[in-house]
Design a protein that fits this description.
With 746 residues, the chain is α+β, with helices and mostly antiparallel strands. It has one domain. The chain is built from ten helices and 38 strands. A hairpin with a 5-residue loop joins strand 17 and strand 18. It is globular.
C-alpha cells in the first residue's frame, strides 16, 4: 500500500529523525550558474520547507492544486537540458570528466560522492566512476581527452563478430586488432574507478581545488603497469592465492588490478570511504566454479553496443572473481589505492550503510542491485571502541555476512552465509517472474542454472543439505568460495529475492536503516522479487516504480538476528497511489532527519512519448507497460521527504537533471550549506545535442484524482550540459549546490 500521512506519522513515532554524519563537496573552476524552476506552490516555504518546489511534468499531491488548475497548468510543459533547482538555489561546477587529477584525469560517469573534512571549509572529495556510456564517450573522447582512439576499426571488427563479440584474450600479441582493443580498453578503464581531489571553500562561498599530494586516481588498471595494486582481506584471499584450481588463475595471488563499475558507497565515522563495485558482470565473467575460481576471460568477450562498452577486462586477462567487492580507501593517504574486504561479499554492490556504536559490533549493510538481489549485513567479530578510530577498518577482516529474509508480516531474519547453513531456497512460484537462479547442480561445470519448476527445488535440497556441500576446499576455502559466489549462495540459503536494493543509509540517531528498492520488474536472466513482499499500492506485482523501506533491528542491536521492516515511501503516479517519482536510488539524510532521494529511471525511458495509455501489439490492444509509462516522469529528479512536521510523509520536488542523465551521490557538508551532487551520463542515448535540437511530444497524463488529459511537451534531443552552448560535449560532472543567500539548505 502507499503510505498515507496518518499511517506514516504512526510509523515514525514521536520525535523520529536522523542526523547525517557525512560532509559535502567543492571546487569552482567555472562561474556559478543556476536555473530556477517554476514554483509548484508559493506557500511551500511558509509550510516549513526550506525551498519552494519546482514544477515537474505531472501533477502531484504537494502541488496543492485542484483538478481544474492541474488541467490548466500541466497542458504544456518544457523540458530543460540543465540542472533545474528551486528559486534561491544555485550550483557550481566542481569537476568534470577530463579535468586533470594527479597524473591522470577525472573519470567518467561519476556516482557516489564523499567529502571527508580535514578542517574548517576543506577536505577530500572522493568520487566514484561507474561505467562508459558508449555514444557520448566515443563522440567526444578526442575533444575532451586530446587523443584519438581506433573507434572505427574496432566497430567494424565488432560488427563482423556478430553476437559473440571478440575474444581478444585469445588473439596473438602481434595481431593489430588486439593492440587496438587493448588501447581502447585501457583508456575506458582509466575513466573508471575513483577520483580523490582536495577542495576548499573560499570566503565567498565558492569551492576551489587545492591540488594536494593526496589528489590521485584509482582506476580500472591500477597495478597493471604502475605497481599500485589493490589488496584484499578475508576468506576469499585463500581463493586468490590458489596456485591450482578448476578455473582461471591470473597468477597475481592476492594482488588485484584495479577497481571498476564503482557505483554507490559510504563514508565511515573514522574518515575512510567505501566504493561499491556493481555491474562487474559486464566487464568480466560473473560465474565461478565450486572452488571459487573464475571462468576463463573468454567467457566475457569484448563488445560495444549503443549504450555500453562490454568485456573491457577480456583482453587484459582479468580474473572475474576479483571484482564485485566493496573497496575501502583512505582519501588522506596518497599511497592508499584501496582494499577489497571479502567478508562483505562479492555481488553487484550498491551503497553501504555503516553502523558503528561504541561497545557494540560493527555492522555494514549493502544491497545487490540486480532484479532479485538481496539485502546483506556484515557483523564484525570484534567490537567498536571509538567510532572515529581508523583501527575500526581491521574489524572488517573477521566476522560474518548475513542475507535478509523478509516475511510478508513485516518481520525478518538474517541468514548467515556459512558452510553449515542449510540449503533451503524459495520456490520459483513465489517470485514475480517465476524463476530463481541457483548454483549449478553439476558442480564440476560451475556457474548457475535457472530454476522455473517448484519440483526442482526438492531435488536440489536432497542433493545439497548445506552451503558447504555446494563448495569445495578447506574450511577457509569453502568460506571464501561462498563469499565469491555470494548472490547464488544466498539464493540457495533462502534469502528473500528483492526489487533491486540500491542505497542503504543508516539513521545514526535511531539506528534505523533506510533502503531504496528501485524496481520490482522481473528479469529473464537475473530473477525477480518475492511477490508476497514487493507489491504496488493496489497489490500489483510486478511493480516497476519502486519503494523505500525502513528496517529496525531487534533491540536496536547491530548484531541482532531478527528485525522488523515497514514501508516508508512508494513510487508511481499519484492517481494510482504513488508519490510522483519513479525508481528511487541514492538517499541522503540531512541534519533535520529529512530524507533526500534521487531517481534512476532508465535513460532510454526518459521522456518517451506516451500519446495514449493503450497500444497495439501483434494486432491486440493492451495497456502501455509500467516500464514505458516512465516517460511520463520526465528527467531523473531530486526529492525531499520530510520525516517530521506538517509535511511529514509527503514528497517535494527539489530539482531535475540534464537530458539522459541520472542524478547521483547526494552528500551534505556538516554545516548543511552545500549539497554535492553528481550528474551521470548526460546525453547517454542521443549524444551531443546538435544545434539545440528539440522535439514536440504528446503525453497522456493524469490528474491526481485520475482524470486523463493530453500534455504537449517540448523535449531536447541530446545534451550540451554543463557548458550548455550549442554543440558542447555532454560531460559527467560534480556540482556544489548552495543557497544564493549563503544559508543552510535544510
Amino acid at each position: 500500500m502507499a503510505v498515507k500521512r496518518r499511517h506514516f506519522l504512526m510509523f515514525l513515532g514521536a520525535g523520529a529523525g536522523s542526523i547525517a554524519l557525512q560532509p559535502l563537496m567543492q571546487n569552482g573552476q567555472n562561474s556559478s550558474v543556476s536555473l530556477f524552476g517554476e514554483p509548484a506552490r508559493a506557500q511551500s516555504a511558509a509550510d516549513g520547507l526550506p525551498f519552494t518546489p519546482v514544477k515537474g511534468p505531472m501533477p502531484i499531491a504537494t502541488d496543492g492544486l485542484d483538478r481544474a488548475k492541474q488541467l490548466t497548468d500541466y497542458t504544456q510543459y518544457t523540458v530543460v537540458d540543465d540542472l533545474v533547482l528551486p528559486e534561491g538555489y544555485t550550483y557550481q561546477l566542481v569537476a568534470s570528466w577530463g579535468d586533470p587529477v594527479g597524473d591522470s584525469r577525472f573519470g567518467y560517469n561519476n556516482d557516489y560522492l564523499s567529502f571527508v573534512e580535514i578542517g574548517e571549509n576543506e577536505g577530500y572529495l572522493s568520487v566514484n566512476h561507474e561505467y562508459i556510456s558508449a555514444k557520448p564517450w566515443s563522440q567526444t573522447f578526442e575533444q575532451v581527452v586530446g587523443k584519438s582512439l581506433p573507434f572505427e576499426a574496432i566497430a567494424v571488427a565488432v560488427e563482423a563478430s556478430g553476437d559473440e563479440g571478440i575474444n581478444a584474450f585469445a588473439l596473438s600479441d602481434d595481431d593489430p586488432l588486439k593492440a587496438q582493443i587493448t588501447e581502447l580498453s585501457k583508456e575506458a578503464l582509466i575513466d573508471l574507478g575513483l577520483s580523490v581531489i582536495s577542495i576548499r571553500r573560499e570566503s565567498n562561498g565558492q569551492w576551489v581545488r587545492t591540488n594536494s599530494e593526496a589528489d590521485r586516481r584509482i582506476t580500472g588498471i591500477s597495478g597493471l603497469e604502475d605497481g599500485n595494486y589493490l589488496t584484499a582481506t578475508g576468506p576469499a584471499v585463500a581463493i586468490f592465492q590458489k596456485t591450482s584450481g578448476t578455473g582461471y588463475l591470473d597468477g597475481l595471488g592476492s594482488q588485484i588490478i584495479g577497481t571498476f563499475n564503482n557505483c554507490s558507497g559510504g563514508t565511515t565515522p573514522w574518515g575512510t570511504v567505501f566504493s561499491a563495485e556493481e555491474n562487474y558482470q559486464n566487464f568480466v565473467p560473473e560465474p565461478v566454479y565450486a572452488d571459487g575460481t573464475s571462468f576463463d576471460p573468454s567467457k566475457k568477450a569484448f563488445s560495444v553496443n549503443d549504450e555500453e562498452a562490454l568485456g573491457l577486462g577480456n583482453v587484459l586477462g582479468l580474473a572475474g572473481n576479483k571484482y564485485g567487492w566493496m573497496v575501502e580507501l583512505d582519501p588522506a593517504n596518497p599511497t592508499d589505492y584501496g582494499v577489497k574486504h571479502t567478508w562483505l561479499g562479492r555481488y553487484r554492490h550498491e551503497a553501504v550503510g555503516i553502523r558503528a556504536v561504541a561497545g557494540k559490533q560493527l555492522a555494514f549493510y549493502s544491497g545487490c542491485d540486480r532484479r532479485g538481489g538481496h539485502l546483506y549485513k556484515f557483523v564484525s567479530t570484534g567490537t567498536v571502541s571509538d567510532p572515529t578510530d581508523k583501527a575500526n577498518s581491521q574489524l572488517l577482516s573477521d566476522g560474518m555476512l548475513y542475507a535478509a529474509k523478509f516475511n510478508p508480516d513485516g518481520t525478518g531474519t538474517w541468514i548467515p552465509l556459512t558452510a553449515d547453513t542449510p540449503v533451503n531456497p524459495d520456490l520459483p512460484s513465489v517470485h514475480a517472474g517465476g524463476m530463481i537462479p541457483l548454483p549449478n547442480p553439476d558442480r564440476a561445470a560451475g556457474g548457475v542454472v535457472k530454476v522455473e519448476e517448484d519440483a526442482a527445488i526438492e531435488a536440489f535440497t536432497q542433493q545439497f543439505a548445506t552451503l558447504g556441500d555446494l563448495y569445495t576446499g578447506s574450511d577457509e576455502e569453502k568460506q571464501g568460495a561462498i563469499l565469491v559466489d555470494t548472490h547464488y549462495a544466498a539464493n540457495a540459503a533462502g534469502a528473500t529475492c528483492t526489487a533491486r536494493p540500491e542505497d542503504t543509509d543508516v539513521n545514526q540517531t535511531t539506528g534505523s536503516l533506510y533502503v531504496t528498492f528501485t524496481s520490482g520488474s522481473p528479469s529473464s536472466s537475473d530473477g525477480s522479487p518475492d511477490a508476497r513482499v514487493f507489491k504496488g499500492p493496489n497489490g500489483e506485482s510486478p511493480y516497476e516504480y519502486g519503494w523505500i523501506i525502513r528496517v529496525d533491528e531487534d533491540n536496536s542491536d547491530p548484531a541482532a538476528i531478527t528485525f522488523i521492516w515497514e514501508l516508508f515511501a512508494t513510487g508511481g503516479e499519484p492517481a494510482d497511489g504513488g508519490l510522483g517519482f519513479a525508481n528511487p536510488d541514492n538517499l541522503e539524510i540531512d541534519a533535520n532527519g529529512n530524507v533526500w532521494v534521487v531517481t534512476d529511471m532508465s535513460s532510454d525511458k526518459l521522456n518517451g512519448a506516451i500519446p495514449a495509455r493503450t497500444e497495439v501489439v501483434d494486432g491486440m490492444s493492451q495497456p502501455v507497460s509500467q516500464s514505458n509509462l516512465r516517460g511520463l516522469f520526465g528527467n531523473n529528479s531530486v526529492w525531499l521527504i520530510p520525516t517530521s512536521g506538517p509535511n511529514a510523509g509527503e514528497a517535494f520536488l527539489f530539482g531535475f537533471g540534464p537530458m539522459d542523465a541520472e542524478m547521483t551521490g547526494p552528500f551534505f557538508t556538516r554545516d548543511q550549506k552545500t549539497l554535492f551532487l553528481a550528474a551521470q551520463h548526460p546525453g547517454e542515448i542521443n549524444g551531443v545535442r546538435e544545434n539545440m535540437a528539440s522535439e514536440t511530444r504528446q503525453y497522456a497524463v493524469k490528474t491526481t484524482d485520475g482524470e486523463e488529459f493530453i500534455q504537449t511537451r517540448e523535449v531536447p534531443i541530446g545534451s550540451n550540459w554543463p557548458g550548455k552552448a550549442a554543440n558542447d560535449p555532454p560531460l559527467p560532472s560534480v556540482v556544489a549546490i548552495t543557497r544564493t543567500d549563503g544559508g543552510t539548505l535544510t
